[in-house]
From TrEMBL:
Native source organism of the sequence: Goekera deserti
Protein's recorded name: Dienelactone hydrolase family protein
The keyword Hydrolase is annotated on this UniProt entry: yes
UniProt-listed InterPro entries: AB_hydrolase_fold (IPR029058), Dienelactn_hydro (IPR002925)
Domain Dienelactone hydrolase stretches: 3-77
Keyword Hydrolase: yes
Keywords assigned by UniProt, alphabetized: Hydrolase
A GO molecular-function annotation: hydrolase activity
């Protein structure tokens, strides 16, 4: 299925995430590496699952802001402006 992805993927992980154990993350990374898809991976050390949500007690504003910076940069690369895609 990853061979059908057109565009780019952004994957961010909390270092302490019970929903994404290391073996699962490693398998996903291998699938991405073997696929013809552009992706970026960021692991945030010392943060927990849910770090992006400001109402959670585990919110990490620095990690969340970094994710937004990278997602917006990806969107700028992938979404056409005036009919021109910027694949930077």
């Amino acid at each position: 299925m990853l061979d059908q992805v057109r565009g780019e993927l952004y994957c961010s992980y909390a270092d302490e995430d019970f929903t994404a154990p290391p073996a699962m993350v490693a398998r996903w990374e291998q699938l991405l590496a073997d696929a013809p898809v552009r992706y970026q991976r960021v692991a945030h050390p010392g943060v927990q699952h849910g770090y992006t949500m400001p109402t959670r007690d585990v919110h990490d504003p620095v990690a969340a802001e970094r994710d937004w910076e990278l997602v917006v940069a990806m969107l700028r690369r992938q979404l056409p402006v005036d009919g021109v895609r910027r694949d930077g």
